[in-house]
Write the structure tokens for this entry.
Amino acid sequence: MACQNLAWPALGFKVGGSLLSQIRNTPMAKKGQFPCDYNKACHVLWAVLVKRWTMTEAAIECRLNVGTVSHVCHGERFPSAYPVPLPGFE
């Protein structure tokens, strides 16, 4: 799946222009905060296992670090999580 199929406008990004600079200006979680909760873990599993997105695409869509997505997909974080569709992607 190509990145242009992701819901960039739903995430507050403008389509076209310098998408990379818009992504770089998105605030990350502060040190000591963990941005992934149980619901996000469920959304990540749905994106990777059901929709067959790459972990990178799922990370961008869910605003998570790729390493966090990897940990969720391998069951190292939130091992009881199950796939739940992202809002707007049902």
Observations:
- The longest helix spans residues 38-50.
- The chain has four helices and no strands.
- Residues 1-5 have pLDDT under 50 and may be disordered.
- The CA atoms of residues 75 and 81 lie 8 Å apart.
